[in-house]
């Protein structure tokens, strides 16, 4: 009503973040705290024959060393959903036995009075291993691949007969695309501080899922839920690495119990390369067939990726391909090879990031083969519906994205021939690709409280991992409450609050916005019903539906003067506050999807109250099974390639995104830009190298694992279609954290081909591959 | 606020009575340019000292002036300036991203010059003016660079931000920014995984008045 949705307001936590006042998880100091440092395995397979802690124990200031020999025993965790708690490696609980499954496995924790002492003592722990021969290379172990069962039939998809169509096709394109292991490298290392107070446990943890960590602590340590609290007020980026729970918070809690003092444990940057997830390497075989005018007749997309011996994770690279283009014959497969490496986990746009790279590079190759404009090829095969699921898209304005993107990059000036454009000494190339990501929504709850002084507070146990959740949720709440944003405080990242979506799968905006809105509207409804039944109110006797709330007042529609302020009413009634809770039980996921919505009775009160909340009921009544929920976009890139040195500079990057309603243009642009920069990293710089002799990570720091820096930046042009998705929620907004990376990698690689005539199918495109 | 172990506020700037030969040694060789390789060297040196039990590093009292305030710290000599700030003084505005001089998250200003505090021993900074993110604002108002960062959305998670801002303020003192490309280049020691680079450049341009 006060029209705050969509406004590019500054981040509400901006002042804290620029002044050093935002507290991240390592920045708490419970009294008597000690420092923990992990000791990690240095072999990839085998067992610990002996672990000698004698010398380390003698270091002055060491207060305890925990190994499998003296650690408490843990229960296997229940549940596999990040929202309700996904332990990263279900078959490998930390410090329970002597088995080693990968390099970098946690084998001890050293606690000492200072960080320096703990770190020093950790280096003195001597381990004698019985080494077995590991397997760690994907490419040479393809014969060991198997079809995973997790995710059900969704991982192996088929319509029509792709093989037959390929055999009889006019035009065929078959290639293999490979992507290396990528590491998230959020700037904030994984960190936990744990404090026991009797049987009460307080944990500060850098996590994308406070409720998830809490559930895991409860089930793995056998604790009572009401005794455990997990807090994560500010998170220094996650990108998936903090979505599943890695050993570090569990070990921190165990260590605090053992030494009977609070413990702080932070992973080093080096440890994050082995002990906190990664994106799997992929080998993707793509086959396309079309008629001579470019109409696709077959698509095959076969992905082989890695898993580990202690859990199963599938990089679902082929899923987007199943709905991206109109084509009668499609076959998608996913296979895994188990390796002695840490289990892969979601990384920004899991599946879609490497998957759109492969399919969109393949489409580019087909376009050149057909001598057809790459945009035209995509338009000829435009999917008006999700042909795999036989459902309408909830919303899709992709044609407009192509058009506006082409205009913004200057596509019409592109001469189609590869290696035909120059600027000075540089070869110039233009490339484009389609971006897409799931528009996820899961069940979430929130609570709104309006205080008699006219300010309001929102509580919800989701997190802001840097995406701007605090800010857009404040906007959503302010709009629904009829209050200016500076009168609304949104509190997140505390497991005591009503349970809400984990910060993964680009689902927070779509999932948590609606219950916040509904709870806020619930408060206003209570306020209005108070007023109309109060003889002292100017609104007494008016119909509730005639009254609106705006700018801290309720009044009769079109009669601003006939009403009163929230504070007047609450003070007159002697009420200090008015509360409402809401839970929206909505999911856009396939029923057999790998990540079902969190369920459970913890939000019983919110659920009960929601039964009479019209905003919740209306929202839940939409039949979402009829629709396929995705976001779309088009990415365009101009590159400059030095023909002598093979260096690539992304000169300009354009994104036009169709991601529903934009809630804050400023933070939305930043999100997309961040994704695009991840894409530049994937295309040109990033990739984890392993020692071919023993499977250990070689590039285990930021000097060797290169991420994009300021000097790598192109000029950006980021635009939005900004049309609400009518089916995802009453707000119409979809998540935008991940779609920015999808399409970007292919756009860069396609531009490099246009510039040089060289098609690199093995990422990253380093200069040695171009000269 | 309760401070970490061994910390007291002091106005006593006289360090001579606490001076140890070890610290003198440390300061000398660091000034000779061996800072990067000092840590392993130091540890090894201690281990071969006859009779020294493992890891029983010396503690020293050092004096640090941070944001104009003097502190006396009795700390492990191996303590980096970054850890002294974060853990001993509990001033956590300065961030640790890599501890190896590779990310810039720990950037602070020493006598107005930007440095990586993770590559600097606390003991090396005794006669310097240390400015951290907490000390940039004067009074109630924010520093113009902080204001510009908010206005241009020059951060997302905010973890690299204190380092970026200190680095940007240091850059202003260096007098060799003439073009946008200079800013991109000279800010490349500060990684932002969220990818706020363009907005960081815009913020700096606004403060530099070259927009
Ligand atoms: S923490 Fe000092 S440069 Fe990364
Ligand atoms: S704002 Fe997150 S790393 Fe820069």
Task: Write up what this structure looks like.
The complex is a heterodimer of chains A (771) and B (211). Among the domains of chain A are: 207 residues, Aldehyde Oxidoreductase, domain 4 (2-Layer Sandwich), CATH 3.30.365.10; 188 residues, Aldehyde oxidase/xanthine dehydrogenase, molybdopterin binding domain (Aldehyde Oxidoreductase, domain 4, 2-Layer Sandwich), CATH 3.30.365. Chain A has 18 helices and 30 strands. In chain A, strands 3-5-1-12-9-10-11 form a 7-stranded mixed beta sheet, with helices on both faces. Chain A has a 5-stranded mixed beta sheet with strand order 7-15-14-13-8. In chain A, helix 9 runs parallel beside helix 18, helix 12 packs parallel to helix 13 and helix 13 runs antiparallel to helix 16. Chain A is globular and about 80 Å long. Chain B has 211 residues and is an alpha+beta fold. Helix content of chain B is 35%, strand content 14%. In chain B, strand 4 and strand 5 form a beta hairpin. In chain B, helix 4 crosses helix 7. Chain B is elongated, with a radius of gyration of 18 Å. The termini of chain B are far apart. About 20% of the residues of chain B have low confidence. The interface between A and B is large, with 72 and 67 residues. The complex binds FE2/S2 (inorganic) cluster (FES) (2 copies).
Percent of sequence in beta strands of chain B = 5-15%
Quick one: which chains have the greatest interface?
Answer: A-B, 72 and 67 residues
| CATH architecture classification of the domain at 376-439 and 629-771 in chain A | 2-Layer Sandwich
CATH class annotation of the domain at 59-135 in chain B: Alpha Beta
Name the average pLDDT of chain A.
95
């Amino acid at each position: 009503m006060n029209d705050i949705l969509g406004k590019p307001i500054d981040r509400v936590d901006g002042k804290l973040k620029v002044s050093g006042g935002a507290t991240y998880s390592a920045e708490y100091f419970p009294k008597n705290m000690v420092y923990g440092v992990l000791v990690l395995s240095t072999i990839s397979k085998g067992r610990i024959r002996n672990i000698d802690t004698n010398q380390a124990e003698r270091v002055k200031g060491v207060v305890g060393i925990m190994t499998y020999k003296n650690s408490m025993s843990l229960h296997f965790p229940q549940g596999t959903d990040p929202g309700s708690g996904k332990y990263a490696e279900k078959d490998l609980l930390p410090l329970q036995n002597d088995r080693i499954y990968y390099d970098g496995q946690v084998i001890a924790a050293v606690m000492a009075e200072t960080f320096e002492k703990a770190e020093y003592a950790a280096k003195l722990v001597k381990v004698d291993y019985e080494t077995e021969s590991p397997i760690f290379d994907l490419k040479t172990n393809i014969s060991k691949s198997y079809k995973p069962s997790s995710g059900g039939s969704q991982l192996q998809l088929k319509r029509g007969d792709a093989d037959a169509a390929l055999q009889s096709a006019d035009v065929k394109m078959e290639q293999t695309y490979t992507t290396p292991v990528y590491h998230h490298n959020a700037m904030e290392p994984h960190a936990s501080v744990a404090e026991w107070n009797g049987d009460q446990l307080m944990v500060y943890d850098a996590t994308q899922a406070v409720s998830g960590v809490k559930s895991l602590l409860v089930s793995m340590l056998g604790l009572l839920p009401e005794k455990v609290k997990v807090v994560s007020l500010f998170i220094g980026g996650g990108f998936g690495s903090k979505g599943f729970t890695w050993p570090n918070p569990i070990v921190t809690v165990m260590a605090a119990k053992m030494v009977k003092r609070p413990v702080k444990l932070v992973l080093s940057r080096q440890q994050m390369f082995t002990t906190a997830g990664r994106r799997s390497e992929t080998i993707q075989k793509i086959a396309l067939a079309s008629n001579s005018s470019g109409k696709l007749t077959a698509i095959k997309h076969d992905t082989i990726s890695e898993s580990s011996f202690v859990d199963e994770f599938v990089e679902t690279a082929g899923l987007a391909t199943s709905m991206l283009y109109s084509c009668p014959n499609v076959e998608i497969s996913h296979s895994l090879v188990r390796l002695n490496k840490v289990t892969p986990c979601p990384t920004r746009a899991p599946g879609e990031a490497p998957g759109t790279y492969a399919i969109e590079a393949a489409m580019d190759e087909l376009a050149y083969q057909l001598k057809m404009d790459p945009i035209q090829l995509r338009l000829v095969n435009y999917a008006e519906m999700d042909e795999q699921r036989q459902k309408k898209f909830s919303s899709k304005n992709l044609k407009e994205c192509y058009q506006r993107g082409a205009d913004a990059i200057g596509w019409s000036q592109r001469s189609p021939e590869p290696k035909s454009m120059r600027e000075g000494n540089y070869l110039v190339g233009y490339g484009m690709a389609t971006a897409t990501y799931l528009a996820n929504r899961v069940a979430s709850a929130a609570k709104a409280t309006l205080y008699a002084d006219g300010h309001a507070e929102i509580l919800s146990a989701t997190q802001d991992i840097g995406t701007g959740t605090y800010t857009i949720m404040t906007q959503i709440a302010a709009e629904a409450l009829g209050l200016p944003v500076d009168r609304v405080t949104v509190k997140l990242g505390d497991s005591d609050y009503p349970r809400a979506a984990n910060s993964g799968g680009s689902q927070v905006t779509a999932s948590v916005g609606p219950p916040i809105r509904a709870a806020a509207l619930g408060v206003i409804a209570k306020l209005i019903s108070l007023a109309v039944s109060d003889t002292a109110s100017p609104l007494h006797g008016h119909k509730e539906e005639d009254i609106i709330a705006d700018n801290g007042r309720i009044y009769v529609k079109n009669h601003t003067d006939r009403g009163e302020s929230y504070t007047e009413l609450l003070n007159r009634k002697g009420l200090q506050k008015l509360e409402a809770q809401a839970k929206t039980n909505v999911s856009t996921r396939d029923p057999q999807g790998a990540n079902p919505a969190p369920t459970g009775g913890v939000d019983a009160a919110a659920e009960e109250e929601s039964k009479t909340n019209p905003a919740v009921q209306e929202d839940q009544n939409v039949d979402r099974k009829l629709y396929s929920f995705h976001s779309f976009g088009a990415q365009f890139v101009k590159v400059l390639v030095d023909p002598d040195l093979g260096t690539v500079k992304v000169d300009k990057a354009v994104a036009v995104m169709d991601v529903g309603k934009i809630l804050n243009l400023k933070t939305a642009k930043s999100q997309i830009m961040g994704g695009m920069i991840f894409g530049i990293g994937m295309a040109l710089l990033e990739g984890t190298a392993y020692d071919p002799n023993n499977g250990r990570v070689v590039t285990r720091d930021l000097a060797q694992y290169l991420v994009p820096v300021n000097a790598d930046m192109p000029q950006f042009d980021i635009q939005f279609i900004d049309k609400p998705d009518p089916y995802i929620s009453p707000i119409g907004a979809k998540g935008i954290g991940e779609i920015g990376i999808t399409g970007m990698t292919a756009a860069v690689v396609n531009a490099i081909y246009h510039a040089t005539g060289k098609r690199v199918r093995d990422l990253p495109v380093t200069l040695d591959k171009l000269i | 606020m309760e401070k970490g172990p061994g910390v007291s506020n002091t106005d006593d700037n006289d360090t001579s009575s606490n001076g140890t030969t070890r610290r003198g040694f440390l300061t000398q060789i660091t000034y000779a340019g061996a800072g990067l390789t000092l840590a392993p060297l130091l540890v090894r040196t201690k281990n071969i000292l006859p009779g020294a039990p493992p890891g029983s590093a010396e503690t020293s009292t050092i004096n640090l002036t941070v944001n104009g305030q003097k502190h006396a710290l009795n700390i492990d000599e191996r303590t980096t300036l970054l850890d002294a700030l974060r853990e001993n003084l509990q001033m956590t505005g300065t961030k640790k991203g890599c501890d190896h001089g590779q990310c810039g998250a720990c950037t602070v200003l020493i006598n107005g010059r930007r440095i990586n505090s993770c590559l600097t021993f606390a003991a090396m900074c005794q006669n310097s003016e240390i400015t951290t993110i907490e000390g940039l604002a004067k009074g109630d108002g924010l520093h113009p660079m902080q204001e510009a960062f908010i206005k241009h959305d020059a951060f997302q998670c905010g973890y690299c931000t204190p380092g970026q801002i200190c680095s940007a303020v240091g850059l202003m003192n260096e007098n060799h920014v003439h073009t946008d490309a200079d800013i991109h280049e000279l800010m490349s020691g500060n990684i932002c995984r969220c990818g706020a680079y363009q907005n960081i450049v815009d913020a700096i341009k606004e403060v530099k008045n070259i927009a």
